[in-house]
Specification:
It is built from 7 helices and no strands. It is mostly helical and 173 residues long. It has a single domain, classed as Arp2/3 complex 21 kDa subunit ARPC3 (Orthogonal Bundle). The two termini are 13 Å apart.
Length: 173
């Protein structure tokens, strides 16, 4: 993984963060909300190697920790997305190349978004945070998973093409 790709991907994540905070979070989706940022982060992490997935998880978590709408402890998202990056890096090799099976890619990212939100709730319970009613939380996780499933089929091909532009000739082999 080259430093230029880390910089470009970080700028891409920051762009998705700005779009999420300024536009997507203002839309009132039925059932629950949709996290464009989380979908983009998980899509980038799923395409990376072991080190890249963990590094992008940490970088994306730090960016998300600076969110003005986040009322969780600072560093919580960095921890969660680093854990998810590790889980992605461990399971990516067993699933294979996503570019050959786009539906598997969409399902993998959707499952990752659902697991990420469940990990967020569990770590919140461990830290003693008041997360609210469990049925409302499960409804939010289910709704976000549903919207991620619907929108990721549009977003993920764009992320794959943007990532392909940043690959060096050595990484393309």
């Amino acid at each position: 993984m080259s430093w230029s790709r880390v910089g470009f991907s970080s700028l891409l994540l920051f762009f998705f963060f700005i779009v999420q905070e300024s536009a997507i979070s203002k839309i009132n989706f039925p059932i629950s909300g949709f996290s464009l940022y989380l979908c983009a982060v998980l899509g980038l992490m799923a395409l990376e190697d072991r080190f890249g997935a963990i590094a992008f998880g940490f970088i994306a978590g730090i960016i998300l920790d600076f969110s003005p709408s986040s009322d969780s402890a600072f560093g919580k998202w960095a921890l969660i997305l680093t854990i998810v990056g590790y889980l992605f890096s461990r399971n990516r090799e067993s699933i294979g190349d996503f570019t050959e099976r786009p539906m598997a890619f969409v399902l993998f990212v959707t499952a990752g978004a659902t697991i990420t939100l469940l990990i967020f709730l569990v770590i919140g319970l461990v830290l003693g945070e008041n997360n609210g009613n469990i049925l409302n939380n499960l409804k939010t996780v289910f709704g976000n998973g549903l919207w991620t499933l619907l929108f990721s089929s549009i977003l993920l091909p764009i992320i794959v093409k943007l990532r392909a532009l940043t690959l060096t000739s050595r990484e393309r082999i």
